[in-house]
Amino acid sequence: MTTSDDLADKIGQLSDGTVADLMDFIKIRSVYDEKDLQPVKDAANWCQKKLTDAGVKPEHVEQKCIGDPAKNAPLVYATCGPDDVPIGTPTVLLYAHYDVVEDGGWEEAWNPKLVDDKKRVQGRGAADDKSGVMMHLGALRALKGKPPVSLKIVLEGEEESGDTLEGYVRKNKDLFKADVIIIADTGNYKLGEPTFTTSLRGVVAVDVTLSTLKKPKHSGVYGGPPPDAFMALTRILTALLDDKGDVAIPDLVRDHWSGKEPDETAFRTEVGILPQVNLIGSDTLGSRLYVRPAVNVTGLSGPQPYSKPVNQLTDTARARVSLRIAPSQNPEDAIAKLERFIEQPELNPWNAEVTVEKADSGAGFQADTTQPGYTVAKKAMKKAYPGKETVYIGDGGAIPLVTELQQINPKATVLLIGCEEPLCNIHSSPESVDIDELAAMTLAECSLLRLLAPKQ
């Protein structure tokens, strides 16, 4: 039996190759765009080759079409396990995504380099989520392509900007049946501190369209009596929050967080909140971040852009309203409450024409940490982070796939782990990942796979 020390040594020996591969991987500009699939196809081909290089039989690695081959990124799907599968061997599903967000004007996004005395790899997707892909590859390499459990490896290409995979999972449930599911798309609450993300808020969104005029009119000639559509819309939008900054929509689920409480000072620094700006909302910081609703506007149209102002009354204004919901909140119920709130006559005293249309919906996630799988997973974390206690945190974001996998595997242990600690600066610049954190999380995954294997 390979020990955790042997695995740690093996991962250390493979580290230079892991870093080199990650830097090579970052060079692929794998931003999903249905009008240009070549970058994500290149990334999928890269993943497929690396899986076979790591010991997965070529006939057990394929690229699956999850929708329209002309519009959707391929899903890299692989299986491997012991040659002779003992009775009681669990199936473990490993998930990560190879697509990344746009560079956002970061000129060096696709030119990876080592920074911080060569302790971190910098580049777009270094952490989110190419580190997750490398974590799974690293585990396979350390185990010499012969994991002691049955593996299903799922590498997605549309996580950041598509939503096709959830429907594919619902139609192909057998491909995604597992006893343990490892989602490598989160991370530790702080560098070097082992962490499980045990809750995710859900998200719903609606498009609000408000019209007051048949077409724009000169504000100098007509301004005054006719209501400006944008000004009328802002009355509705500002009503979504009360004076404390809590979501004003009544009867939404408002849970209380009892896990690891974030440090407010560190949180303010991480977010970049200006010194004089107050945090909003009531209850603890953890509750506000992880299990209570939050609302904001994610898209807006109406007046002319600031760079090209025009003296005119706006005829029609639109806003995409995004509502983060508690993990236990039913999304459809939340949408109905949001729509009713927006359509209140008292928010529309000028009797503007208002329409509300559903734009998005995704359920939250709550892990059952009493499952035996969590006990085993905590032991694995201790092997990777000796002397450290594993903590539970929530995440204010949503990963709809997690909910789908949980629904078709109601008895499975779902583990959200990864390398994306706060210093990674994901979805911003400069994004990076800590090399030692990647190695530690790879060791944790390897150790977990060993511990899950049936005793001989």
From TrEMBL:
Q: Which GO terms describe its biological process?
A: proteolysis
Q: Which UniProt keywords apply?
A: Hydrolase, Metal-binding, Protease
Name the InterPro entries for this protein: ArgE/DapE_CS (IPR001261), Cyt/Met_Dipeptidase (IPR051458), Peptidase_M20 (IPR002933), Peptidase_M20_dimer (IPR011650)
| Every Peptidase M20 dimerisation domain range | 200-345
Gene3D superfamilies from the xrefs? 3.30.70.360, Zn peptidases (3.40.630.10)
Q: Write down what this protein is called.
A: Acetylornithine deacetylase/succinyl-diaminopimelate desuccinylase-like protein
Molecular function (Gene Ontology), one example = metal ion binding
Q: Give the originating organism.
A: Streptomyces zagrosensis
